[in-house]
Design brief:
3-stranded mixed β-sheet, 7 strands, globular
Amino acid sequence: SKAAWVVAAAPIALAATWDPVQATAYGDVLAAEALHVGRALVTAPVVDIARVPTAGGTDEGFGEDPLLTSRIAVAQIRAMQERGVLASVAHLAADTQRTERDTVDAVVAPRPLRELYLAPFEAAVVEGEVASVTCAPNRLNGTHACEDPTLLGTVLRDEWGFDGFVRSGHGATRSTTASVTAGLDL
């Protein structure tokens, strides 16, 4: 029978190579495995900036450096999508911990938000031409990420020119009307 999940080596180990060529190879393998189990979309790469090293899920991302994260993510996205698997970059935005991630409010000033937390997402959209963005379950500056019209509309669609679809992370949708109005598609 086909596996329900695509399993690959920890992305944090990929980031430790500092090598976009390896990220391309990783994306090729991830896409091949997804296709093998009948999947057309993978929630990857995870480009959340690591802030809590012991948090569950930290190994799913590329660490704490936004430039490194951007370079590795773009290479992986391009490789996956060239093989016909849609990448869904996750989790927009500031989803940096797992403890109470559904209720936490990440309060981030505008400059670090842009320079640290949003930079890898911008690279994924603008350079990687990612097909999908997964919004986060946390609040960002008081508003649930999947209900934030500034994040999903102004920044993602208007400023970065994203024309793909926005999907909800597991348990990240709090209401239908506010989420759809903000820009959630799925």
